[in-house]
Design goal:
The complex is a heterodimer of chains A (140) and B (312). With 140 residues, chain A is α/β, with parallel strands linked by helices. In chain A, 33% of the residues lie in helices and 16% in strands. In chain A, helix 3 links the parallel strand 3 and strand 4. Chain A starts with 5 loop residues before the first strand and ends with a helix. Chain B is of the alpha+beta class. In chain B, strands 5-7-8-10-9 form a five-stranded mixed sheet, with helices on one face. Chain B has a three-stranded antiparallel sheet with strand order 1-2-3, with helices on both faces. In chain B, helix 6 packs antiparallel against helix 7. Chain B is elongated. Chain B starts with a helix and ends in a 5-residue tail after the last strand. The chains are: A alpha/beta (140), B alpha+beta (312). The interface between A and B is medium-sized, with 13 and 16 residues.
Chain lengths: 140, 312
C-alpha cells in the first residue's frame, strides 16, 4: 500500500498521540507525518526546501491554535498553494462548538479529541479511504 | 443640584426635573418616582443625568416623601464607581472566556488517554475498567462546568437584537426536547398559550430552556410533577413570565444565591449548565434591562419569574 501521507499539524504532543491513535483505529490509510508549527506544515506541503513531502498529503488535520502562525493563516496559505486542489483539510478545535465556526477553506471541522468512528466517516466522505468498508469496521 | 446640572431650582418644578435626565432613562424616572411619592414609599433609582458641562453622569437617586407634602432626595454621582465596575466586569468576562478555553486542552488529554487505555487494554480487569470509567465521569463533569462557564462569558458579551418572541412556542420545544431525552419520566407541563415578549430570540430561548430544564430536574422526587409556564402583567405594566414547579423547592434565604455561578448545584443534583444556568439567565435578562427572581420553599416547589422590562 503506497497511500499518500496524512499530515497532522498539532503542537500538543498529547493531542497528537490521541489523534494518531484515532487515525489508526479508524484505519485511515497512509503514514502519519507530524508538523509542530504552521511554518513546518507549509514547508512540508508547498515549500521549496528539502522538507517538502514527495507527494502532497491525502489529508491534513490542522489544529487552529499553533505556536507560530494562526491556524487560519496556515489554512489560507495552503489553499493558495499549487497543490491546493488535491488537498483535503480538516481543522481541529478544542473549543465548544458554539464558540466556533469553521473557517473558509476548510473541508470540515472536527472537535478534539477526534473519535475513531467520526474520523473514519469523515475520511470516507472526503474520499481519503477507499470504499472498502473500513469506516464501518471502525464503528461509531 | 444646581451647581451640578447648572440649572435654576425654579426649572425643577412640575415635570421640569425630568429635563436633564437622559432621554432613554426619562420614562422610567417619570414612572417610578411620582409613583413612590404617591404610595408614600422611599425610592432608590439609577439613571443618567446631564451635568452643567453637557456630559452624562450616572447617578443614584435615593429619596423619600415628606410627612406633609413633597419629597426629599439625594442624587449621588456614581460615574467613576460605575465605570470601574464595568471595566472589572469586562476583565472578569475575558478571564472566564480564556480560562474556559485553556482548561479544555489538558482535560482533553485526561479524557482521551483514559479512553485510549480503556479501549486498548481490556485485560486490565474489571476494577481498572471501573476506575477508568470514574476518571472519564469526572472529566465529563468538568467539561460540563467549563462549557457552562464559556456560555456565561458568551452571554455576557452578547448584544441583544430584540424582536417579538413567542415564549409559548419556545417552551413547547424545550419540553419536547426534555421528553425526548427522558421518555420514561411522567411530568405534566401546562404552557399558557400566546405568551409573547420583545427580546433577543437567542437569549430568550436560553432563559426559557434553562428555566424548564431546572424545573424538570428538580421535580424528580415528585409523584406526578406539574410544571406550569404562565404570564401576568406586573404593576408597572411589564409582562412577567413565570415557570413554576411543585418539586423540591429551596430555602427562601437562597433565593438570591441560586443565581450565582456554581451555587445552584446541590450535591448529587444536576442541571444543564452544571451550576451556571441560572447565572446565564440572569445576565441574559439583565442585558434587556429586565430582572429575574425566584420564590419557593423547601418541598413546596419553586417559581422563577422574569421580565424583560417595559418593552418586554
Amino acid at each position: 500500500v503506497n497511500a499518500r501521507p496524512i499530515l497532522l499539524v498539532e503542537d500538543d504532543d498529547d493531542h497528537a498521540e490521541l489523534t494518531e491513535w484515532a487515525l489508526r483505529r479508524a484505519r485511515v490509510p497512509g503514514p502519519v507525518v507530524r508538523a509542530r508549527t504552521g511554518a513546518a506544515a507549509l514547508e512540508m506541503v508547498c515549500g521549496d526546501g528539502p522538507e517538502r513531502l514527495s507527494e502532497p498529503p491525502a489529508l491534513i488535520l490542522l489544529d487552529l491554535r499553533l505556536p507560530d502562525l494562526d491556524g487560519r493563516t496556515v489554512l489560507s496559505r495552503l489553499r493558495a498553494a499549487d497543490v491546493a486542489a488535491s488537498l483535503r483539510i480538516v481543522v481541529l478545535t478544542a473549543s465548544h462548538p458554539q464558540d466556533f465556526s469553521a473557517p473558509e477553506g476548510a473541508d470540515a471541522c472536527l472537535a478534539k479529541p477526534a473519535r475513531p468512528g467520526v474520523l473514519a466517516d469523515l475520511a470516507a466522505r472526503l474520499g481519503v479511504v477507499p470504499a472498502d468498508g473500513a469506516a464501518r469496521e471502525a464503528g461509531a | 443640584m444646581g451647581a451640578f446640572t447648572g440649572r435654576d431650582p425654579a426649572e425643577e418644578v412640575g415635570d421640569g426635573w425630568l429635563a436633564p435626565v437622559h432621554p432613554d432613562d426619562r420614562a422610567a424616572c417619570a414612572a417610578a418616582i411620582p409613583a413612590a411619592v404617591r404610595e408614600r414609599a422611599a425610592w432608590s433609582l439609577g439613571y443618567r443625568l446631564r451635568r452643567a458641562d453637557g456630559t452624562w453622569a450616572r447617578v443614584l437617586d435615593r429619596g423619600a416623601p415628606l410627612d406633609g407634602a413633597g419629597a426629599v432626595d439625594v442624587c449621588l454621582d456614581v460615574s467613576a464607581a460605575r465605570s470601574r465596575i464595568d471595566a472589572l466586569t469586562r476583565e472578569l468576562e475575558d478571564l472566564s472566556h480564556a480560562v474556559s478555553h485553556d482548561l479544555r486542552g489538558p482535560l482533553l488529554s485526561i479524557d482521551g488517554f483514559a479512553e485510549l487505555l480503556a479501549d486498548e487494554a481490556p485485560e486490565l480487569g474489571e476494577e481498572a475498567a471501573r476506575r477508568l470509567a470514574r476518571i472519564r465521569a469526572g472529566a465529563a463533569e468538568m467539561r460540563a462546568m467549563i462549557d457552562g462557564l464559556a456560555r456565561l462569558a458568551r452571554v455576557a458579551r452578547a448584544e441583544p437584537a430584540p424582536e417579538p418572541v413567542d415564549v409559548s412556542a419556545l417552551a413547547g420545544e424545550a419540553v419536547a426536547r426534555l421528553r425526548e431525552a427522558e421518555p420514561g419520566r411522567e411530568v405534566e407541563v401546562r404552557v399558557q398559550q400566546g405568551i409573547e415578549v420583545v427580546g433577543d430570540p437567542g437569549l430568550v430561548r436560553l432563559v426559557v430552556d434553562e428555566l424548564l430544564a431546572n424545573a424538570w430536574t428538580f421535580t424528580r422526587a415528585g409523584e406526578r410533577p406539574v410544571i406550569e409556564v404562565r404570564a401576568a402583567a406586573a404593576a408597572d405594566g411589564a409582562q412577567v413570565v413565570s415557570v413554576a414547579d411543585d418539586g423540591l423547592g429551596f430555602a427562601p434565604e437562597r433565593a438570591e444565591a441560586i443565581f450565582a455561578p456554581f451555587a445552584a448545584l446541590h450535591p448529587g443534583e444536576g442541571s444543564s449548565g452544571a451550576g451556571t444556568g441560572l447565572a446565564a439567565c440572569r445576565r441574559a435578562v439583565a442585558l434587556h434591562g429586565g430582572r429575574i427572581w425566584a420564590e419557593g420553599a423547601p418541598g413546596s416547589g419553586a417559581t422563577v419569574s422574569f421580565t424583560l422590562g417595559r418593552g418586554g
